[in-house]
């Protein structure tokens, strides 16, 4: 019997290997733990957690081990992908023997494809030939399913000059591939530390708040948004539609250094 599947997206925790680590003044371990408590209180049955990059700020092995230990109380499978701050080798060591790095998740009526959009020692994104090949093969193999694609960087404009400069720079190649297949329902990303939801050429593009500091939307230069940390819940319906909402932490005072001009 076809049924809906519930996903939780956790993105951009920017953890350190030690509990005192911060990003732009905010303690990132504290904010992630509060988000995970919020998830547990709001989402009863989770089919899949997707962690969409920048798991660590300091790229330390301990940060990834900490992340896995923090998520352990959530009774759901998890898949993670690297962001521009991450160390894929340390992610692989932390996740050895686990299935966290699998690129394809079959959920029945839906298939989730997780790609690596990172460029070594660069902030911007690029979907390399091997990643596009993974996507193309999945779209051919699962042409009769609904497909959700996810990677760290954003691939459509958010009308923010500084953020759009550090998105996926070969979006034309991605779009050309998506245009050849009608099964992709949504593309979900992290990276931008803000929520957005737009439809481009029939495909829904979603970005999700960080579990720590937020970036000011529609800002031409770097800016910090005072909104609280958040996560995204996605309900993938059998008919191909998606019900989704962002939840944020309210009523908690976080230390944020609004004087910073970059991160």
Automatic annotation (TrEMBL):
Annotated CDD domains: MPP_GpdQ
Molecular function via GO: 3',5'-cyclic-nucleotide phosphodiesterase activity; metal ion binding
Keywords per UniProt: Hydrolase, Iron, Metal-binding
First and last residue of the signal peptide: none
Enzyme Commission numbers on file: 3.1.4.17
Record-annotated membrane-spanning stretches: none
Annotated ranges, domain Calcineurin-like phosphoesterase: 6-194
Top-rank taxon: Bacteria
Keyword Thylakoid part of the UniProt annotation: no
Protein family: Belongs to the cyclic nucleotide phosphodiesterase class-III family.
Name of protein: Ser/threonine protein phosphatase
